[in-house]
Amino acid sequence: MSMLRIGHGYDAHRLVPGRRMILGGVDVPHHLGLDGHSDADVLTHAVMDALLGALSLGDIGLHFPPGDAAFAGADSIKLLQKVVGMIKEQGFSLCNLDATIIAQKPKLAGHIPKMRENLAAAIGVPVGLCSVKATTEEGMGFTGREEGVAAHCVLLLAKENRENKRPV
């Protein structure tokens, strides 16, 4: 097995009335929220899928099935912590991640520092290893029409040296 592994994750959820908009564990004030079985946190879901994909461990639907009542309304940051446990069991740790949220509204810049802190804390790494950005699609596509929000994440994992817990 290679000592370095790259992962990519993507998630999207529909915007609907009567739900909260949770992104990176942050409750973002907005008149619409994200529809889903869990808290529908597209950012955290993209990070989880990238982690799982880097080690060929499937996707979040495999580990946290959307039809399973145990995950109804689940806090995605807590699910991320479980995924991190799986990654650590395989002897890997995060080198860095870079994520992008795609949403026409609301503006997210003021919430990004807390999103980065939440992700870093859940993964157990310094916040400087977690980059989060937001962009619009200039009114194009489902995110531009404010029908939903999407997120992408790419990341790098390294095999840990078991003696000193540092990537080799």
Walk me through the structure.
By secondary structure, this protein is of the alpha+beta class. The chain is 28% helix and 32% strand. The protein is built from 5 helices and 8 strands; from the N terminus they run ββββαααβαβαββ. The chain has helices at residues 42-54, 60-63, 76-89, 112-123, 141-144; strands at 4-16, 21-23, 26-28, 33-34, 92-102, 130-135, 148-161, 166-167. The strands form 2 sheets. Strands 1, 4, 5, 6, 7 and 8 form a 6-stranded mixed sheet that branches. The model has no long low-confidence stretch (mean pLDDT 93).
Annotation keywords:
6-stranded mixed sheet, two-stranded antiparallel ribbon, alpha+beta, globular, 168 residues, 32% strand
**What characterizes the major β-sheet?**
6 strands, mixed
Low-confidence stretches: none
The topology string of helices and strands comes to EEEEHHHEHEHEE
Structural class, from secondary structure content? alpha+beta
Strand segment count: 8
What's the average pLDDT? 93
**Tertiary shape:** globular
The number of helical segments is: 5
The fraction of residues in strands falls at 25-35%
Q: Radius of gyration over alpha carbons? A: 16 Å
The rounded distance between the terminal residues' Cα atoms is 13 Å
- As a percent range, the share of helical residues equals 25-40%
Give the arrangement of secondary structure elements.
Blueprint: E1 4-16, E2 21-23, E3 26-28, E4 33-34, H1 42-54, H2 60-63, H3 76-89, E5 92-102, H4 112-123, E6 130-135, H5 141-144, E7 148-161, E8 166-167
Parallel strand pairs: 5-6
Antiparallel strand pairs: 1-4, 1-7, 2-3, 5-7, 7-8
Helix pairs in contact: 1-3, 3-4
